[in-house]
Amino acid sequence: MAFDLDEKLADGRVGFFTDTSVCIGCKACEVACKEWNAVPDDGMTFTGMSYDNTVGLGADTWRHVAFVEQRRPLGHQEPGVGDMDFRWLMASDVCKHCTHAACLDVCPTGSLFRTEYGTVVVQEDVCNGCGYCVPACPFGVIGKRETTGVAAKCTMCYDRLGAGEEPACAKTCPTDSIQFGDLDELRERAERRLEQLRAAGAGSARLYGHDPDDGVGGTGAFFLLLDEPEVYGLPPDPVVTTRDLPSMWRHVGVAALALLAGVAASAWRRQS
Amino acid sequence: MSQTDVRLDGSPGLRSEREATPGSAGRRRERLPVPRADFESYYGRPVLNEPTWQAPDIAGYLFLGGLAGASSTLAAAAELTGRPRLARACKAGAVCALGGSLYALIHDLGRPERFVNMLRVFKVTSPMSVGTWILTGYGPQAGVAAAAGLTGMFPGLGRAATIGAGLAGPALATYTAALICDTAVPVWHEGHREMPFLFAGSAAAAAGGLGMLGAPVSEAGPARRAALLGAAVECVAAARMERRLGPLAEPLKRSRLLRAGEALSLLGAVAGLVAGRRGGRGRLMAMAAGAALLAGSACTRFGIFRAGMESANDPKYTVQPQRRRLAKAKAERDLR
């Protein structure tokens, strides 16, 4: 192959490792992201969903801290609420910067592109707001911004990377729950952390998005979770939709030929 | 020096919090476990972001694009077999549907003035890009075919354009299946094997309806046969899709629009045949049948669109099929 994505990406690809086991739910990442990227407000509403009022990722939310309340123990922790087991799960979600990115594949203008850091970024001066990337994303990350009419999502602070700075969210995270760096190194670090947590009795800990053999070829932003992905609003087995596109085109081709043949057959006899 | 940075260039400065162990404060007492729910989600919120596509624009385009494409093919077939009035009606219908398609597509853009940006690339991975180029090839031919057919000028050029549009028509009528299936929307994506056939059938039924509406009964034989064939293919494809999708087919099975679409299509196709038997006296009935077929095709497209939106907005349609897929993969691994 002339162009090998995996080889290209292995060369200097950066990413996020979000270790949710040390997230304290301070939302400093949300604020830092908004500040640095000048992301507009996404509505001032109280949802009643624990302490989460940003709800989910979208055009105007590029970092989202999930708050999960569970009547279950966390490791050997004493919850301090009488006889009730209780634990918080907090996790800062972000664009996954997939190896096989559906948003990038389906973009009809070439506005979405792969950067030299292996990240996926929208060129907002090229995007015409067709909205195709929105349903293409298996994680529900990208959205169309009402005010500008174009797609918007996390850029992994493309402008900061060029200046040798880490992204704003990772820079501000007070517990290093969000770690930024060379993706291979982050993966090794995540494996070590997982072993450490399992040894400490947190049997439910697992990595999410770290596996290059998963449905999206591994993600540039991956996570250490303490429960099933869907508990955090993440899909358990995301697959890049374009994986099935060759099959779709084959079926479209057969259907188009069948339509042509069917109409021709309908008019086979000449008018007398 | 900052401790927090893990920079592009190098060595991470570790902070102690990174190694903190959750729940390390002490021993725990025995407690009663709480049973887990069999399906979990984040406060019932959808995993996917809701498509920003508006039903009148995009479902409308699915209908109009199918109508335009199949009508051009029917027009070419009618012209080549000596049915000038059927050909003229189909060409006029196709160019009107094309106009509606272009309006809907551009209207749905967040920045309509930038629609030409889609002509700066060709990407086979993006059905919308492929469709833009199909429209770019098909549109002018359909326009020339209609103009020449209605004015009678440049008959040679008109015939070439009619045949060109007739050959490009099926591509326009069916690529829209890939357009919606190439998304993470569960019902659309998982239905990708049957969707092109469902759309081809629905398009043929709509074009047949248009032919019955616009051409005299004596010339509309091909329209009646195309409508019957199309309605049958549409219904079979829908039934197959619903069976294959299993629990994921719920939004399709619940859809009244889809049922109405199938009923109108079949009714229109059969009524069209009866009108054909009655010859010249069946003109009114043929027109009613044609209108029913057009309405049926529109209902089908809006029904598919709505069912997809519904499946995107409920996390269970995203999570449960993926869970089943994981369980199946695990079972297969365990067997080996």
UniProtKB/TrEMBL annotation, chain A:
Residues given in the record as [4Fe-4S] cluster 1 binding sites: 23, 26, 29, 173
Asked whether the UniProt record includes RNA-binding among its keywords, one would answer no
User: What does the UniProt keyword field contain?
Assistant: 4Fe-4S, Iron, Iron-sulfur, Metal-binding, Repeat
Subcellular localization, as worded in the UniProt entry: Cell envelope
Q: Which cofactor does it need?
A: [4Fe-4S] cluster
Checking PROSITE patterns in the record gives: 4FE4S_FER_1, 4FE4S_FER_2
Cite the InterPro entries for this sequence.
4Fe4S_Fe-S-bd, 4Fe4S_Fe_S_CS, FDH_Electron_Transfer_Unit, Formate_DH_Fe-S_su
A GO cellular component annotated for this chain's UniProt record is:
cell envelope
Which residues of the sequence carry a binding annotation for [4Fe-4S] cluster 3?
95, 98, 103, 137
Name by which UniProt lists this protein: 4Fe-4S dicluster domain-containing protein
Automatic annotation (TrEMBL), chain B:
GO-annotated cellular components: plasma membrane
Q: What is this protein called?
A: Polysulfide reductase
Topology class, membrane: Multi-pass membrane protein
Q: Which Gene3D superfamilies match?
A: Formate dehydrogenase/DMSO reductase domain (1.20.1630.10)
List the PANTHER family. Answer: PROTEIN NRFD
| UniProt keyword Membrane present | yes
Q: One short Pfam family name for this protein?
A: NrfD
Coarse class of the primary localization is membrane
What segment(s) does the record annotate as region Disordered? 1-31, 316-336
Subcellular location(s): the record lists:
Cell membrane
For this UniProt entry, which segments traverse the membrane? 58-77, 89-106, 160-185, 197-217
Organism for this UniProt entry = Nonomuraea deserti
Keyword vocabulary terms for this entry: Cell membrane, Membrane, Transmembrane, Transmembrane helix
Q: Organism's domain of life?
A: Bacteria
Similarity annotation = Belongs to the NrfD family.
What lineage, starting at the top, does this entry show? Bacteria, Bacillati, Actinomycetota, Actinomycetes, Streptosporangiales
